[in-house]
Structure formats: C-alpha cells, structure tokens
Amino acid sequence: MTRTLRGAIAVASTAALALGVAATTTGASPGQAKQEIRIGLLLPESKTTRYEKFDRPYIEQKIKELAPDAQIDYYNAAESATTQQQQVNTALAKGDKVLILDAVDAKSIQSSVEKADKAGVKVVAYDRLAQGPVDAYVSYDNRKVGELQGKALLDALGDKADSGQIVMHNGSPTDPNAAEFKAGAHSVLDGKVKIGKEYDTPNWDPNNANQQMSGAISALGKDNIVGVYSANDGLAAGIATALKAAGMNVPLTGQDAQLDAIQRILLGTQTITVEKPYKPEADIAATMAVNLAQGKELPRDLVPTTVTSGSGQKVPATLLTPVVVDKDNIKDTVVKDGLYTVEEICTPAYADACKEAGLQ
C-alpha cells in the first residue's frame, strides 16, 4: 500500500469517527441535523384570570418537561381578533412549527389557520375550536357545561322556578364555546322557567354584563326576577354588582372557578361555578404540540374522539369532563386540585363564611 493511499484512508477514518461522535451527541443519524422544536402559544385575552395564572404556565411547563430545548413564543391578543391574526403571521415568520391557538374569534381566524396549514405548520386548537384545517383540539364538553349550569340554577330555584323570570347572559357571540354553553343551558331550562331577558355579551366583558343586568332589572322589575344564568365567572362578577346595587340576591351561575367567584359562593352572592381543571387540558395541549413538532402521529388515547368545526372539518379531539363547584365541595374541588389554597380563599373578609363552610 502506498503512503498516499494509507494517508487517504486515515483521513477518511478520522472524518467518519468525528461524524459518528457528532451523531451520537445530537441523537441524530449521520448527515441528519437535530430537529428544532419551536412552538407558538397564542392565548386570547388576560381579563379572565385563568390565562396568565394557569393556562400559560401549565402549557409552558409541560412543553419544557417533554422537550427541554423547545423554543416557546408567547402571544396574547388582548381580546382583538385582528391582533391575533397579526400574531399568527409573526409566529410563522419566526419559524414556529406548531401553534397552540385559543382563538379570539373562531371564524375570523380561519384564514390564519389556512395560511399556517399551507406553510406546513400544525395547529392545536386549545379550549375553543378554531375554524379551518386544525390538526387537533382539546377542551371540555362545553354543552355539558351549559347543562350543569342550567340544572344547578333549577335546583337553586326550587319552587320559585315558575313564580318569576330569569335573565340569561350567554357570553361572546364570536366564541363557539359560548354557543355550546347556551345550547346546553337551554336544553335544561326551556319549558321549566320563563326567560325574561337574554343577552350575548361581546368579549365576555363584565362591564357589559353589568349594564345588561341593570337594564334587565329596570325592564322586568326586581321583584319579578328569580334567578340569573351567567355563562362564566367574569360575567357573574358584573352581574353580582348590578344585583347588589338593586338590593337583590337571587341564584346566579358561573364557570371557570375564579377566585372571586369562589369567594362569592362562600358569601352566598353566587350559587355555583363550573370548574374545568386547567392542568389536564394544558398538559394534553402541550403533549399534542410536542408530538406534532416531532413529526409523530397523535396516539388514539390522546385524541379518542372527533369533533366537527364550524367550517366543517373533522378534527381529532379530547373532551374533558367539567365539575360543578358549590359551597359544600370547595375543599374537594378547587383546593384539592391545587387551584387555590385555603389561605388564598379565606382572607379576613371571608373568614366567617369559610368557617361556616368547613374550610377553616
């Protein structure tokens, strides 16, 4: 063998060894670069406390647990559908490969979802089912939420159900979940109570709910209103203020298990809320996103069912089960689930009510 040939073989062997070490270090095969995981998290607003306090940190924590090197780009649309569309454009420009999207407006975001799809970017619809070619969806059974709220209101009304009228506040008309809450509530309430006034409340704005409730009290008369259906706790806060100003205290529903709602339940100015534990929903969304970012098929246990979006797409989905929270089970629901500690709930203003409810 010539000296030149021996040198060439040695160089080739050294290069191959170096390549093999690099491949072992990165976890990739020779010639294959390590895949970057970059995920965009797009939440709709921050007026509702859940998004910044629970959803965002839970989702980010689970992504990092599953993919420690993942890059997470966070966006909050501050209730603006236009802003959210611009944020999708930004996420695509940054190179995000998967979007976890909680839509401000499920219909208007469709063009952005289609743009992501054309760019090869996967979309996980979170909590609200966006229209367009969504790849996966996780939420709670929203019709069931409305059914639970309606039943709880009827139970609280008892014999008064047919002695007056109720007022309904159904939430934002751009949120597809609101339509499902509304349908579920009507399926229970229709024919059993008289609905004196019914409102959709743009942007889930408590101030709008307050004004609507004040208007309903003026129009119907406070002595003729026996109960109020509120689709969530944010609306219930505005409604409760209007009821208090009118010297009223009637059964009032809610949803999301906000801290102020739990405290109103203790005081008796709100009857129930519906808890949709945030961590299971957030963990599933993060798991879906990481799987899709890694190019994997979603396993059947992660998407055991299928839902149809407003634009007609069949979307693999997980729908979780909501829970009613009342004065008697606060400790076994929101405290046990880690949403709040007893100390957070039972501040001095609520100490007596907490003792009565067995929290202290």
Structural summary, described in words:
With 360 residues, this protein is of the alpha/beta class. It has helices spanning 3-26, 50-66, 81-94, 110-118, 142-157, 176-189, 206-220, 233-245, 259-267, 278-293, 331-335, 342-345, 351-356; strands at residues 38-43, 71-76, 98-101, 122-126, 136-140, 165-169, 194-199, 225-230, 273-275, 305-308, 314-320, 323-325. The chain is globular, with a radius of gyration of 25 Å. The model is unreliable at 1-33 (pLDDT under 50).
Low-confidence stretches: 1-33
3D shape: globular
Arrangement of strands in the largest sheet:
2-1-3-4-5-11-10
Task: Find the count of extended strands (DSSP E, 2+ residues).
Answer: 12
Averaging pLDDT over every residue, what do you get?
Answer: 91
- Rg is 25 Å
Strand residues, percent: 15-25%
Q: Class by helix and strand content?
A: alpha/beta
Separation, N- and C-terminal Cα atoms: 89 Å
* Range of helix content: 40-55%
Number of helices: 13
Largest sheet: 7 strands, mixed
What is the H/E order? HEHEHEHEEHEHEHEHHEHEEEHHH
